[in-house]
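> forwarded from #structure-qc
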């Protein structure tokens, strides 16, 4: 028997969930930093990864507000599945990195690989394991790995505060709605150029390239 899913939360609840998830993500990251500062690097990494997942839940709530095609099944699964949460936030974080995103056709595979790797690292930071005849200990998680994860999440939270300030979400959505049709058309017509322009906008704050693409493809119709 196929599982049944509750309906999507109403818009106000989705926005409240976004705010709560972002707030909790900041709390988790703060706790991760405290642990890292006293040398508890494995647990610091685990909490940073959990902060990452909470932020991803917030993003999912924004998607559910913005996109009418989001189904209850997609929302419920994405809200609870750990790898799904990690892949969604990695998809955003990749655009913040200095390296080019590259061909968009390869993008889903890259994101899934990174999310699986992060999920395994999170578990390694919490549990003793045994693989290939070797005992794996949480203490083997390095300071570098923990601080790298903390920095990733801090950057993602900073971007979120800028792009979706919790006290003016309606304004952010109004701007997004103005761009959405052209952006969707641009992604279909020229995905690699659109991804590159989005990366410049997210990473550097310059919106000239993405606005040019949006204007170029704003009038494309389905027929």
């Amino acid at each position: 028997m196929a599982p049944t899913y509750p309906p999507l939360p109403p818009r106000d609840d989705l926005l409240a969930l976004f705010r709560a998830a972002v707030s909790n993500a900041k709390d988790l990251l703060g706790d991760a930093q405290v642990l890292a500062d006293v040398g508890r690097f494995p647990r610091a990494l685990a909490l940073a990864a959990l902060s990452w997942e909470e932020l991803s839940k917030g993003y999912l709530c924004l998607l559910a507000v913005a996109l009418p095609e989001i189904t209850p099944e997609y929302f419920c699964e994405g809200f609870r599945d750990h790898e799904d949460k990690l892949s969604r936030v990695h998809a955003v974080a990749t655009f913040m990195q200095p390296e080019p995103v590259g061909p968009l056709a390869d993008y889903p595979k890259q994101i899934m690989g990174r999310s699986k790797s992060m999920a395994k690292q999170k578990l390694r930071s919490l549990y003793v394991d045994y693989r290939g005849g070797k005992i794996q200990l949480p203490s083997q998680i390095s300071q570098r790995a923990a601080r790298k994860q903390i920095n990733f999440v801090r950057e993602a939270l900073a971007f979120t505060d800028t792009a979706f300030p919790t006290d003016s979400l309606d304004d952010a959505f109004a701007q997004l709605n103005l761009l959405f049709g052209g952006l969707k058309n641009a992604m279909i017509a020229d995905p690699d150029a659109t991804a590159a322009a989005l990366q410049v906008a997210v990473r550097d704050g310059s919106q000239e390239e993405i606005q040019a693409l949006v204007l170029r493809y704003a009038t494309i119709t389905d027929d």
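QC bot note: The longest helix spans residues 11-37. The first strand starts at residue 129 and ends at 131.
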